[in-house]
Amino acid sequence: MIPQSTQANRVLVVTAFSLAGVLFAQEAKQETKVVPVFADGEAQVVDAWKKQADWIQQFLWVETTFDSDGDGKMDRMHVDVYRQKQTETEGLKVPVIYETSPYFAGTGSTDLSYFWDPKHEIGAEPAPRKPMPSIQYSEKPGMIPRTNMEVRGGDWLPRGYAVVHSSSPGTGFSQGCPTVGGKNESLAPKAVIDWLCGRAKGYTTPDGKEEVKATWCSGKVGMMGTSYNGTLPIAAATTGVEGLEAIVPIAPNTSYYLYYRSNGLVRHPGGYMGEDVDVLYDFINSGNPARRDWCNQQIRDGELKQGRDRLSGDYSDFWAGRDYLRQVGSVKAAVLMAHAWNDWNVMPEHSVRFYAECKRKGLPCMAFFHQGGHGGPPPRKLVNRWFTRFLHGVDNGVEKDPRAWIVRESSEDKRVTEPTPYADYPNPDASPVRLHLAAGGSSIGGLGTARVPDQKTEKIVDDVAVKGAQLAMAESSPHRLLYATPELQEPLHLSGTASLKIKLAASKPAANLSIWVVSLPWTDKGRITDNVITRGWADPQNHRSLTKGEPLVPGQFYELSFDLQPDDQIIKKGERIGLMIFSSDHDFTLWPAAGTELTIDLDYTSLELPVVGGAAAFAKATGATGAVR
């Protein structure tokens, strides 16, 4: 028999070992908590977060600081959350990738019969617009079905991010009114970010008091989206909201004036002839039917109608209030821009101007550009590095990488994922080269660095029925003037913003002015964007001021200067660079009756191109001689 004291000691030893085992097991359990994994500066997929069936989905409403629908209560935004189950079971805290949109609950008609009819004289009162059919209201909450999450968030949740979506004010289950660039479109995503960071209240219902808290959020938020969905991250960033660490705006609209007007001219986005702010309002007005009449009266038929001014394209306080560049002073987020050089819907100047201002402000910023059309995100690897750095806080040095990434001209899909890096945009080696005109534009005149004296004037007769591509292909035409460089003996790289100085007279008090820079010979094979280098439009009535146009005195000459759309393109050997001047652009401007005459002073008019390598590179490529002016 073991003595009692010895047995007691053994019990104590066994108990001690058992307790140690329990503690070890608890520590081991804690050590097996799932955490993000990083390699080569990128967040990696973690197997424990891949299974979509395990993701937690929440619907909720975040209360804002505004009442835009006039019901006496602060508007609440409908929010959709997807997060890893470990945020519930293991106390995992994760950063957020957030997208907000006016489109999640459905949109209106794209039938152009509901848009403004462009067929009328410049400055004339347009015919009333036919009402767009109302968007059907969905009775089922939820904006991003689980079946769509593989596209919208399936690659981000496994890398350690929660994915959040919200509907914009007055759309879907979000309260308020759509305002198309109004202040509530900036404050709504700010409120959602404030909720994610613990500073605003979320509720389980649109009008209830049961709160929902985002205790699982790390306090770091990134935003990403395309087109309108790319505009709203910029809108949110201009509020200076704490916690918004990074944004990736893709083809964003940074100014509603630049979207619907050009240098004083009423102009429409490519593919949407007759669109304006009130049309876009109808297109997104999918919110509560009980508040739509009030919103229509106050916003569409009030604020937007009073501010848009389709009689002129003058810049006003209305447009200034919808220009995000004027609000960039509060931006703190790291900015990765993305845009296409051939985006004629939301044109590339939107991103280029915002990127330039971010650089001036000293923000971490980078730009990705490609040669396609509207939309197109940066390579996922680049976005991953951006979010890894600014949301997960991994010092991967992405802000020290080349600032500009440009997809070069190629049909190879791999080039989209393998863009060419450059020190910056515009290319630091680019400098302006001024080109002068030589007579003969009704067929093809000359375009070169040498100023040819006493060229006098040449004339065009407006006819909107003849489209720009037809004009560029024509051997001669009374409806346009075309001037071209010699055939390039080697490729020529353009990088930056071209500009035009022009002196003209019109036969009427108002006229459209359209400018295309094209590569010749024009080919009708493939896309028009294979031929168009850049474009620009202006109203000669605004030759003195962008804020107030004045009727032209027929026959009197006026001088004006304006920028064309920015670009980065390598023009091929064997091609010619052409400057085409015409009046009404069938796909972008109003459609006045044919017959207005424009007379161009060739001695004054010139085109400035941003050439990599400057005048020497241009001279070498064209074999040109003569002084550069």
Shape: globular
Lateral strand order in the biggest sheet: 8-7-3-4-6-5-9-10-13-14-15-16
Range of helix content = 10-25%
The separation of the N and C termini measures: 114 Å
Rg, alpha carbons: 29 Å
Average pLDDT across residues? 92
**Number of helical elements:** 14
**Structural class computed from helices and strand pairing:** alpha+beta
Care to count the β-strands?
Answer: 27
Which strand-content bin applies to the residues?
25-35%
Main β-sheet, in a few words? 12 strands, mixed
Low-pLDDT runs = 1-29
Structural description of this entry:
It is a single chain. With 629 residues, the chain is α+β, with helices and mostly antiparallel strands. The protein is built from 14 helices and 27 strands. α4 crosses α5. It is globular and about 80 Å long. 49% of the residues are buried. The model is unreliable at 1-29 (pLDDT under 50).
